Amino acid sequence: MAAQTIQLAAEVAAQLASTKSLHPTQQWLTAFMSTQKSTTPLPALTQTASFRLLSSDIATSLSSDASFCLPPDVSDVNIKERRLQGSVVLQLLGIEDMSKSRWEQIEAIEALERGEGTKGREIIRVTNTEEEDDSGTNVSKGGGPHKLSLQDARRTKVFGIESKEIQGLGLGISIGCKLVVKNAVVARGVILMEPASTTLLGGKVDSWHRSWKENRKMELRAAIEASERSARSNS
Hints:
single chain; alpha+beta
């Protein structure tokens, strides 16, 4: 890259790190800058880079340096409690509303597919602007606490539990959504998530989202059928 482009790339990287804790790899940053005009203002470049990172698989776009990732043994249930050091970007692989039955979760997913949201117990029709915020994350109110399946840039997986209500977290959230956990507590291998330690960045990986919706409904129906078979056999 030319000297001017190298300097601009460094400024974009610095902005992404300071505002959203996003640390793209040099390879990703070089490829991104090669598609941009050197005359593009820094704020516009940073916004475009952020949008693309939030729509990517962070295992291919973000640095896997240990300081930006989870400890390898983060899911060790033998460790009673510890606190993560610094900020870690994670991507959402799945979500479960622990307050809803299996059938209620299926109904909630199908309602969102129809463009319906919930307001208390009332089903309402939502427009795109009401359903999504600027980051592209669906805002689904009510329910919870939620259990999340998460992954870092090293593809280390961990579960998170919403210990206190987090605005914007719900079954309507997009799979592939990125979030930052900062100095969060991990208890028995599970991240305890609350507003003070969790920030939703938004984003979505379309193929993951489509696959999750279909697979999740199949899993829930299979679990319901298995439970019904077990109940019949015991009666």
